UniProtKB/TrEMBL annotation:
Gene Ontology MF terms in the entry: catalytic activity
Any one Gene Ontology BP term: isoprenoid catabolic process
Protein name from the UniProt record: Isohexenylglutaconyl-CoA hydratase
The species this protein was found in: Pseudomonas kuykendallii
Family stated for the protein in its record: Belongs to the enoyl-CoA hydratase/isomerase family.
Amino acid sequence: MNDLPHCETLLLKLDAGVLHVTLDRPDSRNAMSLAMVGELRAVLAAVNQDRNVRALVLRGAGGHFCAGGDIKDMAGARARGGDAYRELNRAFGALLEEAQQVPQVLIAVLEGAVLGGGFGLACVSDIAIASTTARFGLPETSLGIVPAQIAPFVVKRIGLTQARRLALSATRFDGLEALRLGLVHFSEPDAELEQRLQQVLEQVRQCAPGANATTKALLLASEDEPLDALLDRAAGLFADAVLGSEGVEGTTAFVQKRRPKWAR
């Protein structure tokens, strides 16, 4: 795979095709600094075309996922004026776009504080596993600011009605409520988070990495692309997949009653 960037705010561990990315600023509950945003974007770029990396697991150190934006960064930007704030904010939006589009399966493990920007990262994950005791919220309006970059991703994740309620009241809620809202897919007691993660990773490993990447892109395109054009393009993708190496291996394995190579 491409060399991973050196990181000061992230811990990186590649294990059996899974890149574990840990936000590592525990003293600030992993608040999202501009440096962390840059390092996350660099990691995503490094693995983008690498099919040997099957999944990314994103979590936080010290019992918290991410408490939102770094107030120190905001204070530093204040001295440089409005353009600095726009650049700081938009950089995080670019991260959310890139995280949502990354070809690998993005799995978020959500513990402790999942606030503001952390909430946004949860919304762009493919599979989200939350502790029942995690604390979710959009606190921006209670600070006199707006959830500018994360708002569109929150709406797409849980719908406009619920997004309005949560953003306009700064309501805090736990992992069970996050499950009810459809923000996360699993809500587990702390002692069972790792077991659930391993189950999810085992399921992901049953799927061909190229087919997963194409399927993810197709699903995301369904939000915006006209249906007729999308179905025409999807037919071509299907034909390419059937005739490609993964399709041949997968269908052959099925006939031979064995596991395909990528699932071994």
